[in-house]
TrEMBL record:
Subcellular location field: Cell membrane; Membrane
Domain ABC transmembrane type-1 span(s) in chain numbering: 96-308
Keyword set, alphabetical order: Cell membrane, Membrane, Phosphate transport, Transmembrane, Transmembrane helix, Transport
Protein's name according to its UniProt entry: Phosphate transport system permease protein
Listed transmembrane segments: 36-61, 102-121, 141-160, 172-195, 216-237, 286-308
Family: Belongs to the binding-protein-dependent transport system permease family. CysTW subfamily.
Role played: Part of the binding-protein-dependent transport system for phosphate; probably responsible for the translocation of the substrate across the membrane.
Major localisation: membrane
KW Lipid metabolism (keyword) present: no
Species of origin: Niallia oryzisoli
InterPro entries assigned: MetI-like, MetI-like_sf, Phosphate_PstC
One Pfam family hit: BPD_transp_1
């Protein structure tokens, strides 16, 4: 054996010197990776936290500059939003009204359809049907929102105008319906995951007591999965509130403080898009107004998420 030495190991397996060297290098490499990976993961987590803090700091700093020029009382209570007029009016209520109108319509469309789809996939569909339907449904979540926007403007709006002749070309109803269609896969998919995690023994026990399959779905599975269902609805609503391109294309750019869903509106995100296109110079009051509007949008999302966590914890404790 040309220079190959055989050594006995504890397992009575013979290892050559070369094999022992390779094995030692592997152990050293594995040990090094065990020491390096926690540091890499920590740095990754720190980057995420620092990025979030940086965004929040920038948002707060620019918002404070805006409120140095525009009283916060006017911003919160004034009923007109005309930033490009002279003098400008910066009452955010019309933008909030437009955002809430679109979001409420989207929720009315998405929640029933999403929950019905989740119940079918979880309780009634066969494994084969689930494998086919769920991926097809989730494709909707990957469609670019600009496509949804033009779909709302060129397809949904003309159909709605045949039903409601008074409906304007730009309105709140059409983008609200399309946003509801867009967030339906999110609610359906996450709700179905929550329902599927309910133990099968709970279903079998209810069926054994004489319940029908529909009663099991509504009286056993839904209450047991309510925490995940609430989380899915909140995620969908958050996406509806923050949706930009659909409302910018099909909703219009007319901030109105009303609950009329047939007329043109402007949401908070649509206004940010309008100003970001170059309609206002850097350092002007209009420029800083997009940060104030963005901070208002951030507060809406934060309060909604805190409320969702409270509701989820309460229902989770009950069940």
């Amino acid at each position: 054996m040309k220079g190959v030495f055989i050594l006995a190991t504890k397992d009575n397996h013979a290892l050559s010197v070369q094999e022992m060297i390779v094995e030692k290098r592997k152990k050293r490499k594995a040990f090094s990776m065990d020491r390096i990976m926690p540091v890499v993961l920590l740095l990754t987590a720190c980057v995420s936290v620092l990025t979030t803090l940086g965004i929040l700091f920038t948002l707060l700093f620019e918002t404070f500059i805006f409120f140095d020029r525009v009283p916060i009382g006017e911003f919160l209570t004034a009923q007109k939003w005309y930033p490009f007029s002279n003098p400008g009016s910066f009452g955010v209520l019309p933008l909030i009204s437009g955002t809430l109108k679109v979001t409420i319509i989207a929720v009315i469309v998405a929640v029933p359809i999403g929950l019905a789809t989740a119940i079918y996939l979880s309780e009634y569909a066969s494994e084969r049907a689930r494998r086919i339907i769920k991926p097809i449904m989730e494709v909707l979540a990957g469609v670019p929102t600009i496509v949804y926007g033009f779909f709302a403007l060129t397809f949904v709006t003309p159909i709605l105008r045949e039903i409601f002749p008074s409906l304007e070309i730009f309105n709140a109803l059409s983008p609200g319906i399309v946003i509801g269609i867009m967030i339906t896969p999110t609610i359906a998919s996450l709700s179905e995951d929550a329902m599927s995690s309910v133990p099968q023994a709970m279903r079998e026990g209810a069926l054994g007591l004489g319940s029908t399959k529909l009663e099991v779905a509504f009286k056993v599975v839904l209450p047991a999965a309510i925490s995940g269902i609430v989380a899915s609805i909140v995620l969908g609503v958050s996406r509806a509130i923050g949706e930009t391109m659909i409302v910018a294309v099909a909703g219009g750019s007319t901030p109105n403080l009303s609950w009329d869903i047939t007329s043109s509106i402007q949401t908070m995100t649509a206004y940010i898009v309008q100003v970001s296109q170059g309609d206002a110079g850097y350092g002007t009051t209009i420029y800083y107004s997009i940060y104030a509007v963005g901070f208002t949008l951030f507060l809406f999302t934060l309060v909604m998420n805190l409320l969702a966590q409270y509701v989820s914890r309460r229902f989770k404790e009950e069940y």
